[in-house]
Amino acid sequence: MFEQFTQDARQTVVLAQSAARRLGHHYIGTEHLLLGLLSQPHTLAARLLVVRGLDLAYAETTVLRLLGTPGLDARDADALGTIGIDLSAIKEKVEATFGRGALDRDPAHTRAGRFAGGGHIPFTKRAKKVLELSLREALRLKHKHIADGHLLLGLLREGEGLAAKVLAEAGIDFAQLRADLDRDIPAVPA
């Protein structure tokens, strides 16, 4: 399937994997594909999102907020605060030393090195569905390639993953974005 991807679409997948690693996630989800698209400001998909008010920084902040911090909630932080422990300060220090998301990583994967610095990170079922839907979108438009715009169409069509939630929170009109993508995706890859 990836042989039909344009260079920008392939780069989106590479950048999605980088985003997953940077955030300490052991999977590539729809949110990582969205971050991969936004990491390439020169592409059609990124330009259409940015003009609607969704940039990489906002998207990443929203992803982190929606995912939350596994294992600890506000009640835990409050309880620790009563005995003089500032959980957010500890988290900042740990992440400054070990990298962003260090407290969220699965220690077994980090020990094995499987996801810590290299190797394959698996796609979630939803992310795989987005890739499949991007192919369907390309076929619907009678294109013989899959570009970044087709990936964004796939995210819109999937419509239920974390990427869709980020898009919705940004106030993006899915139907209008879809229409703009249909109009602007070139029939021949750039």
Automatic annotation (TrEMBL):
Name by which UniProt lists this protein:
Clp protease
| SUPFAM superfamilies referenced in this protein's UniProt entry, alphabetically | Double Clp-N motif
InterPro entries the record matches: Clp_N_dom_sf, Clp_R_N, CLPT1/2
User: Record's PROSITE patterns?
Assistant: CLP_R
Source organism per UniProt:
Solihabitans fulvus
**Pfam families cross-referenced by the UniProt entry:** Clp_N
Molecular functions per Gene Ontology: peptidase activity
Upper lineage: Bacteria, Bacillati, Actinomycetota, Actinomycetes, Pseudonocardiales
List keywords of the entry alphabetically.
Answer: Hydrolase, Protease, Repeat
Provide one Gene Ontology biological process annotation: proteolysis
The Clp R domain, residue ranges: 2-187
